[in-house]
Each structure stands twice: as structure tokens, then as C-alpha cells.
Amino acid sequence: MTDNNTTAPSDSSTPVTVTVIGLGLMGQALAAAFLKAGHPTTVWNRTASKADRLVAEGARLAPTVGDAVRAGSLTIVCVTDYRAVRELLGASDVDLDGTTLVNLTSGDSAQARETARWAEERGARYLDGAIMAVPPVIGTAEAVILHSGPQSVFEEYEPTLGALGTVTHLGADHGLASLYDVAGLAMMWSVLNAWLQGTALLRTAGVDAATYAPFARQIAAGVADWLPGYAEQIDRGSFPAEVSALETDARAMAHLVEESEAVGVNAELPKLFKAMADRAIAAGHGGEQYPVLIEEFTKPADA
Ligand code: NAP
After folding, report:
1. CATH number of the domain at 204-297, out of 1.10.1040.10, 1.10.10.60, 3.40.50.720, 3.10.580.10?
2. What is the rounded distance in angstroms from the CA atom of residue 112 to the CA atom of residue 103?
3. Which of 43, 131, 236, 256 is deepest in the core (most CB within 10 A)?
4. Where do the domains of the chain lie?
5. 49 in ligand 1 pocket by Cβ < 6 Å?
6. Spacing, Cα 131 to ligand 1 middle (Å)
């Protein structure tokens, strides 16, 4: 993403006192990136020994969470889950009034909104965040980190947060970062599962995964190019079959199911594709284009 709400890593920001609470694999990478960018960094972790390497690199280890929060003008929290966040920041010696909190712990959108309300009631300015990267790439442009919450808070700390990776502000709704996070995961697993299905099919004919991978990559990239046009159809709520009709896709899905069964590989995923298309066709959408399936995706499966 390269819009105005996105910043790639840079070393040029003014030093800001930063606190990192939670020094698991991810928290350690976050604290190391702040130190590398020249931000005075205070850390706290339940298991204090995980701070040793960071302390050797110049971090200050706070004795308590309350002390850690007081030390930084910006506090990052990155622990296992939101329950741990609330447990730590709800302790009696922690004063959130006037603090700026960025919660990079993974969770769902309801937890993000609820934690935002909770923190704001205690006087904190709160951004929720989602890290779509693994620890080794933190501090590089490859680390995509999404934020949601008040734009003014993001803008104030954007140069500092930029030490962690390519940071983006998605909007004022605190739940957005979590929603984008799971949406991205849905994309990732769908592409991987589709590739594995094809790989399983081809292996029955002696084609190895490495031979199929470049072809699969080309197909995935080609399909990705369809997204902007299909998105326009979804946003308009109109699905003229400009390229192919859903019933044509459904016939190809039947081949995929039959081929999978015939060669003895798992047909669950192809059957799921077909079941969803069949429902949309039964609802009268067979002559429309593929993205009309959004209607199946926007309601619970048993509706
Ligand atoms: P991790 O290595 O398992 O570390 C978990 C951290 O949470 C540790 O600092 C742990 O403290 C702390 N913690 C858990 N429960 C606690 C409690 N009740 N009180 C105090 N501290 C508690 O996990 P991680 O990989 O750093 O992940 C942290 C967050 O980043 C998760 O929400 C994860 O989903 C997210 N994330 C991780 C990755 C990744 O690739 N690692 C990628 C994207 C997002 P102790 O050290 O004392 O156990």
C-alpha cells in the first residue's frame, strides 16, 4: 500500500521514548527495531530474562508494568491475547491517564473495540494494530503493520511507528486492523489451499510440486488482476456476465470434483466451491458473474 496513510521504515524520526510490554518473539523484534532506530526504549516482560539481550543493546528494563507505562510517551503492548493485555494494563499500579497505547496483540474486532473503550475510559489514547509479518522482517519495509483508531494519534506517532515496518492507518474504527488481519489470512490460506489441491492432483500423474509452482503462481497473479473489476461489481451490486456466467464456472467445478474423486485425492475443497455456487444458482444467479457469490459469503452458512 502506498497511499497517504502508509509510511515505510525510516531512520529519520526524532527520538521518542518508547515502552514495549511483552517480549515474546514478536515483542523482542519490536523493541530491537525501536532501539536500532535510536528511540530510548523501556521494556517489561513477565519473564524478565527475555529482556537480557535488549538490555545489552541499550534498553532499560522496568521493574513493573506501571513503571514501564510511565517511562514511555508511547507504549506498545504485544502479548499472547487481549485477556493478557487487560490483565497487565488493568493492574492497580498502572495509570493509563494521558498515555498513548498501541496494542499490537492479535485478536478480533470486537476485542479491539472493547479494549479501546476500556483504555479510553481510563484516559488513554488508543490505537489497535495488527502485525502481518514474522519477527525477522520487523524493521524492514516487508513488515506490514496495520493500525486503526484516531487518525490524529496515528499521525503524531507515525514516524516512530515507522521504525517497525510499513505502517498504515485504516480508519477511526478500532476494529478495522483486526478485520483486515483476518481478511488477509483468508486470502493467504485460500491461495495456499488452492495450490495444495492442484499439487495433490498433479502428483497423481508424477508432476512434482516444484514443477507446478510457477504455473500456479502465474494463475494466482492473473486471478489477482481480476479483483479491482470484480470489486466494482460488488460495490455496485450488479453482476453482468461480461466474461463468464456462474453456471459455466459451476460446470468446471463439477469437473474438479469428479477429477479429484477419480484420482483419489481429497475433494472437500472442490465440493465446498461447488456447493456455494449451486446455492447461488438455485437462488437465480446462474446467469450472473462470479462475484455474485458475495451474497453467499455475506450470510452465515446455515442462513
Ligand atoms: P510468544 O513468543 O508466545 O510471546 C507471548 C508473550 O506474551 C510473552 O511475552 C509472554 O510472557 C506474554 N504473556 C502471555 N500471557 C501473559 C500474561 N497473562 N501476563 C503477562 N504476559 C503474558 O508470542 P509472540 O510471537 O511474541 O506473539 C505475540 C503477539 O504477536 C500475539 O498476539 C501474536 O498473534 C502476534 N503476532 C505474532 C507473529 C509471529 O510471527 N510471532 C506474527 C504476527 C502477530 P512470558 O515471556 O513471560 O511468557
Report:
1. 1.10.1040.10
2. 9
3. 43
4. 5-172, 204-297
5. no
6. 12
